[in-house]
Amino acid sequence: MAVPSFLIVLCFLLLMALGVLVVFKVLRNPPHGGQSEFSLLGSKLSLKGPAWLIMLAIGVLMVAAPILVAAVERRVVTPFQPPAPATAVAKIS
């Protein structure tokens, strides 16, 4: 079963929107000190260390994910096959 292309585009747009939201929340209220908590859509995330930098990197990766996927995507190239009537004729005088 093939996944419809509009569904893939929708998922990537949602991922980008969530990444923009994460970057916005990090830059609006950067955590100071060691451990920091981050709540998004009812879930709480607790990070240690430079949490704002980690969250900023995750947000930027979420925004850039569709661009990175498009860059590494391989196009399928099918070899050219002449139409059937052209192969039946061996020589034209």
- Give start-end ranges of low-pLDDT stretches: none
Instruction: List the strand order in the largest sheet.
Output: 1-2
Number of DSSP strand runs = 2
- Helicity level: 40-55%
Spatial separation of the terminal alpha carbons: 49 Å
Q: Structural class given helices, strands, pairing?
A: mainly alpha
Spell out the helices and strands N to C.
Answer: HEEHH
Instruction: Please give the radius of gyration in angstroms.
Output: 24 Å
Number of domains: 1
Number of helices: 3
Largest β-sheet summary: 2 strands, antiparallel
- On the 0 to 100 scale, the average pLDDT is 76
Proportion in β-strands: 5-15%
Structure description:
The chain has 93 residues and is mostly helical. Helices cover 55% and strands 11% of the residues. The protein has one domain. It has three helices and two strands; from the N terminus they run αββαα. A hairpin with a 2-residue loop joins strand 1 (36-40) and strand 2. Helix 1 packs antiparallel against helix 2 (51-72). The longest helix is centred in the N-terminal third of the chain and has 24 residues, at 5-28. It is rod-shaped.
